[in-house]
Write a structure and sequence with these properties.
Two copies of one chain form a homodimer.
Chain A (H helix, E strand, L loop, with lengths): L1 E5 L3 H12 L3 E5 L3 H10 L4 E3 L10 E4 L3 H11 L8 E4 L5 H7 L6 E6 L20 E5 L6 H13 L3 E4 L2 H27 L4 H10 L2 H7 L6 H10 L1 H23 L3 H14 L1 H4 L1
Parallel strand pairs in A: 1-2, 1-4, 2-3, 4-5, 5-6, 7-8
Antiparallel strand pairs in A: 6-7
Helix pairs in contact in A: 6-10, 9-10
Chain lengths: ~280, ~280
């Protein structure tokens, strides 16, 4: 099959490696000529170009650009594609993308491979990145089943675990487990920085160990990623943040009231619930 | 030197191993006869008893019981000790303990070895537990220098890094980097559990990966430890929680107002501040 990849970063580049190893003919487009050359040299794609017209002959196109560029790039790409081309994207937020592209393209299916890493760029691309990872697809009721099947078959061949859901459900779910933790964790660091007694601050910095390291990790990560989460998943993230704030307030109230019985029950219940997420 | 250890759990038992390997004569007291037998069998202490009078001949006594028992156990111990005995404790909160014991005992120095682990009990005790870890001492201006020197020398021999500070400074510092993260992390799990759309909750559970795992870890830990932090470090923890809530509110406000410039600055600044704590 002839498969196009628009955007040759970590996800697009890794996808190229896997699809080529299965014998597909993989065509890549990047905004930068240097990225095109690297992607070909590394073997991630067979041919690459800065020109969108290269993708005209692809049967399936994966849009793997940063989230802010998915819709604008698709709007430019549309001029080159026959209406039979199946298009999918890999954006980490689904509702705004599906809402923008679906009315323009019948054979579109939103997607989100949950295989992010701290590294980015074509240099970070690797084989088997998607093996054992969730890969969400958000087809609509009117999406042609043939288009769904084509994308599903490719995703399955990557070794990923396929989930189907509505774009809004996806966005709420990732708000809970990916976007909310970033804000919670960043606020922890910000609060510690607000300590005005410089001796206490220095002691805190010396004493911090694995507990602080783990809880602060995602809050100290890539600020652009955090910003994108807030911008593109604003509504679901605000919903999660309001619930979080409510739960935090309850906990503060329990400590203020010295209600140790209920506080202990609460800590027990969160300890009991965590394995449902992480095991 | 003859050294007594009151409380033979992870910390007391580990201390015993190290002190014996340096040739000290180590006496242990536990509330349970079975723990006494295990501690002797493992080699953590030379002699052990459920009777506090065993510690009468010790030159230095380490109180290593759970935090709630430190003051009551000391109050019982006092009847057996000559006034020359140097007493120290290993409680993870210092102000309430120092306030209670200092008026009763001149040769008392509060201490906190920051070498906690998830495991507990004499079975979890190990050699070299304190190597490279912070060990806080909180002597007061009126504490005899000879008593401070004795404890310092022992602590240094464990391979720990000694810090001196006031009990209140210690408690504020650990509120930031140990106790606040537990509450922040527990509230994250509690908020996720509050999702009323069961499909979204199930998706969140399936999608959760390393970011959620790390941010939720300490909130899913031992509920008794979390409760002790809140009970015994209530004031400092509430102070940290109020600062945290204020920072969280600012962040929610930025997202509501779509103030992406300031949000990005904020995420950048927390990313920049984190290495001061964890590197």
């Amino acid at each position: 099959m002839k498969i196009g990849i628009l955007g040759l970063g970590l996800i697009g580049g890794s996808l190229g490696f896997d699809l080529r190893s299965q014998g597909h003919n993989v065509l890549g487009v990047s905004r930068r000529e240097s990225t095109c050359q690297k992607a070909v040299a590394l073997g991630s794609v067979e041919q690459a170009s800065v020109d969108l017209s290269l993708l005209a002959s692809a049967e399936v196109v994966f849009i793997c650009t940063p989230i802010a560029l998915i819709v604008p790039q698709f709007e430019q790409l549309i001029a080159y594609l026959p209406s039979t081309t199946v298009v999918t994207d890999v954006g980490s937020v689904k509702a705004p993308i599906v809402e923008a592209i679906s009315p323009l393209w019948d054979n579109f299916i939103g997607g989100h491979p949950m295989a992010g890493r701290a590294d980015s760029g074509i240099e970070a691309a690797q084989r088997d990145l998607f093996v054992g990872k969730p890969y969400v697809l958000t087809p609509e009721t009117r999406t042609p089943t043939a288009a769904i099947s084509v994308v599903e078959e490719i995703v399955r061949s990557l070794g990923a675990n396929i989930y189907h859901c509505q774009p809004e459900q996806h966005d709420r779910a990732v708000a809970w487990i990916s976007h909310l933790p970033v804000m919670v964790s960043s606020s922890l660091i910000a609060a510690c920085m607000s300590e005005t007694d410089s001796e206490v601050l220095q002691l805190a910095q010396k004493f911090a160990s694995s507990g602080f390291r783990d809880t602060s990790r995602v809050g100290g990560g890539n600020p652009e990623l955090g910003l994108m989460m807030a911008r593109y998943n604003r509504q679901a993230l605000l919903r999660s943040l309001q619930h979080y704030r409510h739960n935090l307030d309850k906990l503060i109230h329990l400590i203020e009231q010295e209600d140790w019985t209920v506080l202990e029950e609460r800590l027990k219940s969160t300890g009991k619930a965590r394995p449902d997420f992480v095991e």
